[in-house]
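Appendix B. Raw example, untouched.
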Amino acid sequence: MSKFERKFGKYAIKNLSLMLIMCYACGYLISFISPDFLAYLTLDPYQILHGQIWRLVTWVIYPPSSSNLFFILITLYFYYSLGTTLERTWGDYRYNVYIFSGMLFTVLGSFVLMGYSYLFVKQGDFFIVSGSIADTRTYFMVMSRCFSTYYVNMSIFLAFAATFPEVQVLLMFVIPVKVKWMGIIYGIMLIYEFLTYPFYFKIVIAASMLNFIVFYITSRNRVHLSPKQMRRRQEFRRETKKTAGVTKHKCAICGRTEEDSPDLEFRFCSKCDGNYEYCQNHLFTHEHVKRS
């Protein structure tokens, strides 16, 4: 476990995936009631610097565009399932860091795009935007809206595909496909877009996906849980609930036991020298104990 987790782990938000889905649901509701109002919620650095600081947060509720209610419900449920699975596997702290770092990189990327626009896009020039002529300010406003929750969702999906590559999903509710192949396809699409799209879009993609890039580089050598292992974890949890009386399990990092939180599950680490037991939140994030 890192020093940051020891210090800030207790502040991690639980059920963060549910909160994200609730934000999207609010965004969809606003889009149905007052679509024009959503324009005041987008991530627009120009307006943020002119006092509309709420945009630093409210852009999170701006939902992926869709007019089909059934598709909206399926999308919300799908990303809720992916997010909660990652949250339970990684632990609250690591999942919080992944999501909020993605949001932070997205906000920083929008300011980089604004700086690029002012430095390299000539003021007073006109551009074709949505089939009509627009000036430099309108052009930047349209470009800034490329920073949306679309890539937040994409980063969640790619992280799930990297963590559980053998899990199968039903494409179009019929065709069984392993998540890793869908992840590879989406990855190729992102690389193609990055190489072929205009420079401003390269900034959008790089900023929005930087959290996944960092995650993949730092976690590619970790041993991930398979669905069978997840099932064994659930069985172990049920067995733990049956035990009572003397404490049998204690995390070597946080010191919590099954009496402190009955829902916690514990595992011994095979890579540590000695009998060190860890709770689910620290099993994958602790520093291995090695005897010299």
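End of appendix B.
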